[in-house]
Amino acid sequence: MNVLVAEDDGLTRAVIAMQLRKLGHTVLEAEDGAVAWSMVQKLQPQIVITDWMMPNMNGPQLCRNIRGQQGTAYTYLIILTALDRKAGYLEGMEAGADDFVTKPAEAGELQVRLRVGERIVRLQTEVRQLEGLLPICERCKKIHAADGRWQQVEQYISQRSEAQFSHGICPKCYQSVVLPQIEALRRKHGG
């Protein structure tokens, strides 16, 4: 998994990154929330481990920004908290965090939390793929909409996106469908 560690304390960040690399993960590092946010936008890590308190952007704000992205793959978010921050769990969850790890992060606990994160990311990916499948009639190519109606592909897509269609005939269909129809009409009309 690609994991981004956002932690302003260099030693803590290095220790966590080393633990993650030993577990076989690809690790990205950010020294504050703003740098982490920039990296998330460009690199789309699958898991983000963020400190709660950081300069330029704190962990909960980073979580809110990540959750506010449209159309991106799911990112599993873990907030690092000090022992006295347990009262902030609700705030962190409302910001979009999936899990919390108390500092200092122990390798065994981190491994368990990352396994859960991997499962969630994998399941979210499968859900997105399944949502992308359209039930389509193999004969007439109409799509079965959620309301039970069968609609032409063009109508279905036009109602759900900005897509516009221009029609043509591919060479294969021209050869196998259109040309035989033209030949049949010529024979019928003696031409």
Care to give the gist of this entry?
This protein has helices at 10-22, 33-43, 59-68, 89-95, 107-132, 153-160, 171-188; strands at residues 2-6, 26-30, 47-51, 76-81, 99-102, 143-144, 150-151. With 191 residues, the chain is of the alpha/beta class.
Description:
This protein is of the alpha/beta class and 191 residues long. The chain is 49% helix and 15% strand. The strands form 2 sheets. Strands 2-1-3-4-5 form a 5-stranded parallel sheet, sandwiched between helices. Strands 6-7 form a two-stranded antiparallel ribbon. β3 (47-51), α3 and β4 form a beta-alpha-beta unit. It is elongated.
Layout of secondary structure:
Blueprint: E1 2-6, H1 10-22, E2 26-30, H2 33-43, E3 47-51, H3 59-68, E4 76-81, H4 89-95, E5 99-102, H5 107-132, E6 143-144, E7 150-151, H6 153-160, H7 171-188
Parallel strand pairs: 1-2, 1-3, 3-4, 4-5
Antiparallel strand pairs: 6-7
Helix pairs in contact: 2-3, 3-4
Shape: elongated
CA(first)-CA(last) distance: 67 Å
User: Multimeric state of these chains?
Assistant: single chain
Q: Report strand %.
A: 15-25%
Q: Provide a count of the helices.
A: 7
Order of H and E elements: EHEHEHEHEHEEHH
Properties at a glance:
7 helices; 191 residues; Rossmann fold; five-stranded parallel sheet; alpha/beta; elongated
